[in-house]
Each structure stands twice: as C-alpha cells, then as structure tokens.
Design a protein that fits this description.
By secondary structure, this protein is of the alpha/beta class. 36% of the residues lie in helices and 26% in strands. The N and C termini lie far apart (63 Å).
Length: 384
C-alpha cells in the first residue's frame, strides 16, 4: 500500500520528527492537537491540523479526524495509543494502514506473562516467577510484585519479607487496575544489583529483522528511566551479538514489524544474564554431542559392546516437581544420561569425546551450569 497522506496520532517533538521524515518521502501530513498545543511547532509544520476536543487517548475522535482528512495511514509515534492493540485493530478495520507493530505483537508483548512464554520458546530464559503467592518462598525473598500489563514502573512493589507480601500485592493490584485496567500481578525474583539493558530491533513486512545494538537504561527513579547510554560500558562484542540474536529470535516468533525494544536484566553479581543468552548455545552443543554419539556408537563401530543407552532432554523446571500445577520457575533443565557396559567403556568414551571441536565448550557448560554430575555411577537396578 502506498501512503500519500499520514495522520500522526501524537504531539510535540515526536510528531515533528515524523512530519519531517514524511515530507522527505513526499507524504502529506495531518497533525492533531489539544488547546495547550495549539501554538506548538509541529502544528504549523503539518500540511493540515485538527483540534481535539478530548485528548490524545481518544481513539474514536482520532479515527473520525482521519476519516474527515481522508488519510491513508496513522502513525502513533510512541506513548499514548502506540501500545494499544485495540486502537491498532480499529485502524485496520477502518481500512487504514497502521504504521507500527501488528495488534497481535502489541497484545502479546504488552502482557508480561505472555512475553515470558514467548521468551522460553525463543530459548531465552526468564527470572523465576509464580502467579501463586503461596509459592513465594520457593522463589526466595526479596521478591518483586509486578503488574502483568502496562509499564512505566506502575504496579511494582519490592517485598523483602513474607509478612509484607499481602499488602504489597493488594497495593500493586490497585495501581495496575487504575493505570492499565488490568489488576493481574505476578511474583518474580528481585535482582538487587542489576543492569537494565535494551536491544533496539527493526522489522519489515518481508520477515527481515535486525538489531541496532544496546542501550544501558540502569539509571532509574521509581522504576522509570532517567538516562540512557549507548553503548553500555558492561557489554562486550560477544555479549552484544548474543543478546542481539536472542532479541531477533523473539521478534521473529511474532513476525514483528516496525521498531521495537527487547529488554534484558543483567545480574552484576552472578552474571545470570549469561544463563539467559547461553541457552541457545547449550542446546546446540547438546545436539552436536547427541549426533556424535549416534555416529560413534553405531553397530559398525562396535557401539553395542560399550554403550547400553543414552538420552538428552530439555524441559522447564517446576517449582514443585511432584505438583506441576504450582507452575514453573522460569529456568530450563537440560539432562544427559549415558549408560555404559563398564568403567573401561566410560574411559574410552571420554577419550574419544575430547577429540571433538565442541568438547571444550561442552566442558565449560557442565562446569558452569551443571548442578548434578555423576560420572561412573553404578546401576543398582534396571528394568528393560
């Protein structure tokens, strides 16, 4: 669709920048404004301007103006209605082009619970969380009570003791419902000393998605960003690429279009972010090892005389493994189980596995992330 006339559903400097870019592309522009903005520069810069009787959040009035002005498209800028998936749908139903992410992407990424699910599908880990206050102890205090919808630091409470939890949830629910019309909250592990890192992405309608590096947004007041710095002083070349790849993978699952931001939390103390971005690498190494096992222990290579069986698994970690209904912790558990006919076969296996080009990294994974390693264990009982 060729855009000839564009309405900017925003104000101020944001609107001015969009108007300037549109004019450079030969696109006529329509501005909207309220009484206090009537003398703002962006109103004069646009080809046409219409006064709002209500506010920049009144989607019905904005769509009426779009119809009167006979525009082809609406650009929401950022803030106001830019993250309102209902407005994006209304624009589409009016047979207008929505210059922004799809309504589906806005809805999914605007809901933190859905976003966490998508993160896991993309191989990006998330902090341990639960919807059930009874499971707070299993996450461990301090805990962050967080609104499922919205942003801007609203609906968030830090809880350091169990006795503070009930009041914090009630307070967060009240603020979330007032700010976003959605009282849902969840509990997440609170990282006291962390860095807020954002990866900027751009996607088009042909499935192409790129990232433009990171912004450090750790200087905040009341959970709202005060200063943004790029590049981040703690992100090196390799980490930047891995974070960028993770952001692109998440965006690809949504078939994301337009500009967007994927936010990450980096734990300075434990370097927990390495776990977040390392999952894709872990899976690739495990698959390489499984493939090598299949070839090396083939019948033609005498495999049956050494290896009994092997399996590799990847699964979410549950808060209570005996009761999956209590939810997941947000961690991913990888398991390797290899059973050999003798200790000599185990030694033979190790000596040959060490010849693989991936083995050093495989060893680092086991050393850094392995919780239970039991080489050479004895099989007491086996049912076939």
């Amino acid at each position: 669709m060729t855009i000839k006339k564009l309405l900017i559903a925003n104000r101020g400097e944001i609107a001015s920048r969009i108007i300037r870019s549109a004019h450079d592309m030969g696109i006529a522009t329509v501005a909207i404004y309220t009484e206090p903005d009537s003398n703002s520069p962006y109103v004069r810069q646009a080809n046409e301007a219409f006064k709002l009787e209500t506010s920049y959040l009144d989607s019905k009035e904005i769509l009426n103006i779009a119809s009167k002005a006979n525009v082809d498209a609406i650009h929401p800028g950022y803030g106001f209605l830019s993250e309102n998936y209902n407005f994006a749908n209304q624009v589409k139903k009016a047979n207008l082009k929505w210059v922004g992410p799809s309504a589906n992407a806005i809805k999914k990424m605007g809901d933190k619970l859905i976003a966490k699910t998508l993160s896991k599908k993309a191989g990006v880990s998330t902090l341990p969380m639960t919807n059930n206050p009874k499971n707070a102890d299993k996450i461990g205090f301090p805990i962050l009570v967080k609104a499922a919808a919205g942003g801007g630091g609203k609906g968030m409470r830090i809880v350091r003791k169990q006795k503070e939890l009930k009041d914090a949830i009630t307070s967060a629910e009240r603020e979330a419902e007032g700010g976003f019309g959605d009282k849902r909250v969840f509990l997440e592990r609170y990282i006291a000393k962390s860095r807020h890192i954002e990866i900027q992405i751009l996607g088009d309608s042909h499935g192409n998605i790129i990232h433009l590096g990171e912004r450090e947004c750790s200087i905040q007041r009341r959970h709202q960003k005060v200063v943004e710095e790029s590049p981040s002083p703690i992100i090196d070349y390799d980490l930047r690429n891995k974070m960028g790849e993770a952001a692109i993978k998440m965006a690809s699952l949504l078939k994301y279009e337009s500009a967007g931001t994927v936010e990450f939390l980096f734990d300075e103390k434990t370097k927990e972010y390495e776990n977040i971005i390392y999952l894709n690498t872990v899976e690739k190494i495990f698959k390489k090892h499984a493939s090598w096992m299949e070839d090396f222990y083939s019948e033609n290579n005498g495999g049956q005389t050494h290896l009994l069986n092997s399996y590799f698994t990847k699964a979410p970690e549950f808060v209570d493994p005996t009761d999956p209904s209590k939810g997941e912790t947000g961690n991913i558990v990888f398991t390797i189980n290899e059973r050999f006919t003798s200790l000599e076969s185990v030694q033979r296996h190790i000596e040959n596995a060490m010849k693989n080009d991936y083995f050093e990294e495989f060893g680092n994974i086991l050393q850094n992330y392995g919780k239970v390693i039991s080489p050479g264990g004895v099989i007491y009982h086996s049912i076939r």
